Amino acid sequence: MNYDLRGYIDFISKEKDLAVIKKRVSTKYEIAAITAKMEGSKAVLFENIKESKFRLVSNLVGTRQRFAQAVGSSNDKIHGKVISAIKNASKPKIVKKGKFMENVSKDLYILPIVTHFEKEPGPFITSSIIYAKNQEFGTQNSSFHRLLRLDDKHFSVRMVEGRHLHRTFVYAKEHGEDLRVAISVGVHPAVSIAGAYQADWGKDELEVANELLDKKLTLSMTPYSGMLVPSECEIVMEGSILQDKNHEEWMVEMLRTYDFKRKQPVFELDRMYFRNNPIFHDILAGYGEHRLLMGMPIEAKLNRSLKQNLPQTRQVVLTEGGCKWLHAVVQISKKQESDAKKAIKMAFSAHRSLKNVVIVDDDIDPSDPIAVEYAMATRFQADKDIVIVPKVRGSSLDPSSDQKNLLTTKMGIDATKPFSKRKEGFEIAKIPKLNQISLKKYLK
């Protein structure tokens, strides 16, 4: 297994799952357009960028297969690997000097930061992980936060209110302090996957990453902030999130829609470090890699929570149409009529942003939207099989919701076979030996 970004890129290159672009390209829209064209296909390495001497990789874990490879798993065992890593999280080894210390700069303009969409306010770093000290527990937190470049030493930092970085920032501000942080760009995807997971307050996501990497992750301390970051990062920035400055920004989110304008805190750079011949990582918002990185850890969390509390649960899938965030399908082996309603309640409790959940039987593939619609068509009655939960906390990203007050209405659908009806009426007819028939023998 590989343990840094370069090792992972070498691996997918040998698997012929990497496209290398040698033609000169621009960070303004062109890289984003090429990445969008590659959705569901290969990762892309850009070697000749007009605005920077850095290389850039995109669509890195843009398919489920590459996501599985990043955590040393197979497609059907991703959730088990992630859940095991969360359960058995372990401290990484600390080494004295990180490879990212090979070069130093104070100029953010040397980075190939991409402008992705026509109405964005500027170029965003979309793969950045911020490391900050949890003042309550004395531990460290790692989390994704997109950065809008303002000038050669400042970013605005997108923070979700109430999440862990925001809580540490508010604590520092209330004590009259700026919050010292480190920021990485260009890490092994397993570190990104762990950073996207919302661990419990006081837990360190890098310990989850260490398990995903078979305990081979190494960390190094940064000189200004004192944060521990992966020693083989491509790029590390250190500085402070300022207590008394903010900047209005908006961005494209997972739903591929523009977020509303928000006043966000400002990061001020102290130093930036980077490896020789560095590789910058860009994530195209609202496309495959973004949705997999954010959605798959939550999907694992949903599977873990529902299987623990409702053993009848077989599988939970966040749907593509719901941007792998807002909609889910839960497959259960129903034992009692009330099981489906229990599953609806538990799913909403486990993932606050979930807006719509459909419960299906174990003969329905929850990842097949046609099969799910079939279950709704044949096993669902709207007057008794629907659950409406009005005016509750939901996702701030949903433009149809009350975004100011973070309120939405949620819907659960019981599309399971009712016990009160004739069992045989719901049996899906099968053709004997269907899977043994090869049309090549008949069509010549």
Structure description:
- The chain is an alpha+beta fold.
- It folds into 2 domains: 5-288, Electron Transport, Fmn-binding Protein, Chain A (Pnp Oxidase, Chain A, Roll), CATH 2.30.110; 310-426, UbiD C-terminal domain-like, CATH 3.40.1670.10.
- Helices cover 24% and strands 27% of the residues.
- The protein contains 10 helices and 21 strands.
- It has helices at residues 5-14, 30-37, 64-70, 78-87, 164-174, 189-196, 205-212, 288-309, 339-350, 369-379, and strands spanning 18-21, 43-46, 55-58, 93-94, 103-105, 124-125, 129-134, 139-144, 147-149, 154-157, 179-185, 218-221, 228-230, 235-249, 262-274, 279-282, 313-318, 327-332, 356-361, 386-393, 407-414.
- Strands 5, 6, 7, 8, 9, 10, 11, 14 and 15 form a 9-stranded antiparallel β-sheet that branches. A 5-stranded mixed β-sheet has the order 17-18-19-21-20, with helices on both faces. A 4-stranded mixed β-sheet has the order 1-2-3-16, with helices on one face.
- Strand 17 (313-318) and strand 18 form a beta hairpin.
- Helix 4 packs across helix 7 (205-212) and helix 6 (189-196) crosses helix 8 (288-309).
- The radius of gyration is 23 Å and the shape is globular.
- It starts with a helix and ends in a 30-residue tail after the last strand.
